[in-house]
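Colleagues,

For the teaching module next term, I've prepared a clean inverse folding example: a structure given as tokens, and then the sequence designed for it. I'd like students to try predicting residues themselves before seeing the answer, so please don't circulate the second half yet.
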């Protein structure tokens, strides 16, 4: 049985029909649960986060699927838009050898489809991180701080969904949970391998974003230093003319150049010549 955002009344009826534990029912109605697997006396309760990538906003959205797994029943409760489970039934019908595992086959198909969505999201985030790295290390002056922060937040969203599943999926792969036959272990092992791979990708992306952020700050610091050197160089060049004008503007009586016929031209030539010399010196030293 599959339910999408049922209300409390509907869930109460389903719980009475299949004998679901009330604590698990309560958790299934809340869409902010941590991914987990909880064995009860006569059922297994599984919570898995669904993830999908919104291209228009470069964001990762999340939902939740709760699975009640019993000896002869499976009930799924989906919160949020998330991954559609309509294709799970068709997939199981196409792979008839899975049906022999009973309700565990449905749990495997649901987890496999959701984890495949994790890989798609991770691939999209990898592309975004590559774009950020190219922007950070380009020659252009870019403002990547906000983009890096947003991506780190999205990576954290994926980590919160994937990381808690590593140990439960390994236990599924070892068939240590009730209602999970040993014959299904190989299929759950494939899901566990995908979860591990996505977890490694997420950790790598987070590390790359931290490195890109540090590099971006370092580039900003270097650019500011270069700006200060250029400003200082131009101030020094302007100071030469100010110095010459200040000296000859003191109007002392005994300053021969003040009454010299070519004094004005000499002062201008001195200002221009000294400025050109300083400009050349700063240019050679890389300050301009």
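(Answer key — instructors only)
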């Amino acid at each position: 049985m599959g339910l999408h955002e049922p209300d409390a009344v509907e869930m109460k009826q389903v719980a009475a029909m299949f004998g679901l534990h009330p604590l698990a029912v309560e958790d299934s109605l809340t869409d902010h649960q941590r991914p987990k697997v909880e064995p009860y006396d006569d059922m297994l309760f599984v919570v898995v986060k669904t993830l999908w990538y919104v291209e228009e906003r470069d964001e990762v959205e999340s939902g939740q699927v709760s699975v009640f797994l019993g000896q002869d029943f499976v009930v799924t409760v989906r919160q949020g838009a998330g991954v559609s489970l309509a294709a799970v039934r068709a997939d199981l019908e196409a792979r008839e050898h899975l049906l022999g595992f009973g309700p565990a086959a449905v749990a495997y198909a649901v987890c496999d489809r959701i984890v495949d969505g994790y890989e798609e999201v991770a691939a999209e985030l990898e592309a975004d991180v590559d774009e950020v790295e190219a922007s950070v290390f380009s020659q252009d002056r870019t403002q990547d701080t906000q983009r890096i922060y947003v991506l780190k937040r999205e990576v954290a969203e994926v980590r919160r969904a994937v990381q808690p599943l590593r140990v439960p999926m390994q236990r599924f792969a070892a068939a240590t949970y009730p209602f999970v036959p040993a014959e299904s272990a190989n299929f759950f092992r494939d899901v566990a391998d995908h979860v591990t791979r996505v977890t490694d990708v997420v950790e790598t992306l987070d590390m790359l974003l931290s490195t890109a952020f540090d590099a971006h700050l370092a580039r900003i610091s270097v650019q500011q230093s270069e700006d200060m050197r250029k400003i200082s160089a131009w101030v020094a060049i302007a100071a030469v003319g100010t110095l010459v004008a200040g000296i000859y503007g003191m109007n002392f009586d005994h300053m021969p150049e003040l009454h010299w016929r070519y004094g004005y031209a000499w002062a201008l030539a001195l200002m221009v010549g000294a400025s050109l010399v300083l400009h050349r010196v700063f240019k050679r030293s890389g300050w301009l």
